[in-house]
Amino acid sequence: MSKQTKFLLNEDQMPKAWYNLQADFPKPLPVVLHPGTMQPVGPDDLAPLFPMALIMQEVSTEREIDIPEPVRDLYRLWRPAPLYRAHGLEKALGTCAKIYYKYEGVSPAGSHKPNTAVAQAFFNKEAGVKRLTTETGAGQWGTSLAFAGAHFGLEVEVFQVRVSYDQKPYRRAVMETYGARCVASPSMETEYGRSVLAKRPDHPGSLGIAISEAVELAVQRDDTKYALGSVLNHVLLHQSIIGLEAMKQMEMADTWPDVVVGCTGGGSNFAGIAFPFMGHGLRGGQKSRFVAVEPAACPSLTRGKYAYDFGDTAKMTPLTKMHTLGSQFTPPGFHAGGLRYHGMAPMVSHAMHLGLMEAVAYNQVECFAAGVMFARAEGIVPAPEANHAVKGAIEEALRCKREGKAETILFNLSGHGHFDMASYQKYFASELTDEKYDESELAMALAGLPSVPDSV
Ligand SMILES: Cc1ncc(COP(=O)(O)O)c(C=O)c1O
Fold first, then answer.
1. Which of 168, 282, 413, 453 is deepest in the core (most CB within 10 A)?
2. 3-state DSSP assignment of residue 184
3. Is the CB of residue 187 less than 8 Å from the CB of residue 159?
4. Rounded to whole angstroms, how far apart are CA atoms 253 and 6?
5. Helices 114-126 and 52-59 sit at what angle, rounded to 10 degrees?
6. Which CA distances in Å does 322 have to 286, 360, 455?
7. What is the pLDDT of residues 22-74, one digit of tens each?
């Protein structure tokens, strides 16, 4: 048996173009609707929020989009990211499956998020933007945009979801180290934040609310745009570098994944690892299965409706067709803050709707147990979000063991958990519980989904 553990690419093997699954979908994505008119949006409708280069990527159906040289130069700090064979985990599980993981925790922020933060900061800077506003759930995305903003000379203002702001004070310290400003959301700094706090002063916050606050600030000033860390087509496009590298690394390992696993919050790291392989299969290449792993406390793919909905709670963003729990749904305050989002990326939702992928949901305690097993077998302590992918991969490996199949499993280890040790301590003290969402709140949020004209 080969004992090779790391599969490494040189800097000159880094992909020169991102991959766009829109070119290979058997059916095009549903249109995006304007929140006021409920009619399809055009590029100009999105211009107050994003620079035109990113809007054009959002609607592009080109298969390949070049990665600008300054973006590739900054990627060189940590890319190409390593692919590992999980020999230790395979042994611990006694499985005949071969497990590989792509490790995105080697970036300065500790996750996959800088792959798009660097690109978004670059295109905003090129368009003359001075300031970016954003939300952050786990703090990973806020850190990443702060890092990218510092590099390209942009001011960055981050609304961090209240529970994660309280759970992870050092994430804020890192954002401030990069020169960003970070406030807890809901905040008193926006009209929408004040309205939420007036109704519930101890509101734990949610990504949907933090997005509304960031968008409200962005549209007030001409020199300011908004940046989103997941969900949108251009974000998924930038993350495709994960899977493109992994394809080369699987070839180096002389194998191909039977199954590709990733955790899903808004869908960006899952799409990053999965979509290049999915496109390969759709173009007639070897086919893989794709498994998205989501938290049972915020199960948009497994319990949500595939419907038009707003991306934020204040209903300011355009409407997209996606798997959603309803924009008014507040997920419970579980510890994978980056997975507490009511919706799902339209491209991931479309792939799910077309039957190109599967989804499963697990509770947080079993995901922490998987993360601890992984840490002891492989040495890396995963972020709580990434623990969901670890759990999904372990379940696939155990299935292989039961069925006596030596399948190849590839999963994305989207980030490390070095800022999440308080949640690990809670887990060891048996203080971590499986958070249940409020069924009646979910029913109400789903009942309140916007109605859209029959013509769309
Ligand atoms: C480490 C990590 N993994 C996964 C996610 C989930 O986001 P996405 O589904 O967009 O990859 C986050 C979000 O903050 C994260 O920090």
1. 413
2. strand
3. yes
4. 9
5. 130
6. 28, 17, 17
7. 999 999 999 999 999 999 999 999 999 999 999 999 999 999 999 999 999 99
Residue 70's Cβ-count burial label (10 Å; 0-12, 13-18, 19+) is middle
Separation CA 321–CA 74 (nearest Å): 34
Distances (CA, A) of 182 to 265, 266, 313: 21, 21, 20
Q: Is the pTM of this model over 0.85?
A: yes
86's CB contacts (< 8 A; 6+ apart) are 99, 100, 101, 374, 377, 378
Strand-strand pairing, 305-310 and 289-295 = unpaired
Predicted confidence (pLDDT) per residue in 241-261, tens digit: 999 999 999 999 999 999 999
* Residue 449: HSE in the Cβ half-sphere, 13 Å Cα cutoff: 21
Minimum mean pLDDT among 64-78, 246-260, 389-403, 430-444: which range? 430-444
Cα of 265 to ligand 1 centre, how many Å? 6
φ and ψ of 262, to 5 deg:
-150, 155
Which residue(s) pair with 183 in the sheet? 159
- Compute, in angstroms, the gap from residue 18 CA to the centroid of ligand 1: 19
Helix %, strand %, coil % of the chain (to 5):
45, 15, 40
- Burial label for 436, CB within 10 Å (0-12, 13-18, 19+), is exposed
Q: How far, in Å, CA of 309 to CA of 327, rounded?
A: 7
Taking the C-alpha atoms of residue 382 and residue 59, their distance in angstroms, rounded to an integer, is 34
Residue 2, pLDDT above cutoff 80: no
Measured in Å, residue 293 CA sits from the centre of ligand 1 at 12
Strand partners, 263: 293
Alpha carbons 261 and 277: distance in angstroms, whole number: 11
User: Cα–Cα distance between 201 and 144 in angstroms, integer?
Assistant: 29
* Interatomic CA distance for residues 75 and 18, integer angstroms: 13
Residue 47 sits at φ, ψ, to 5 deg, of -60, -30
Percent of the chain whose pLDDT exceeds 90: 96
What would the pLDDT profile of 203-240 be if each residue is shown by its tens digit?
A: 999 999 999 999 999 999 999 999 999 999 999 999 99
Exposed/middle/buried for 251, CB within 10 Å: 0-12, 13-18, 19+?
A: exposed
**Token pair recorded at residue 59:** 């609607």
Determine the pLDDT at residue 97. 98
Q: Give the residues surrounding ligand 1 with Cβ less than 6 Å away.
A: 111, 137-138, 140-141, 230, 263-270, 338-339, 383, 385-386, 414-415
Q: Is the pLDDT of residue 1 over 60?
A: no
Alpha carbon of 264 to ligand 1 centroid (Å): 7
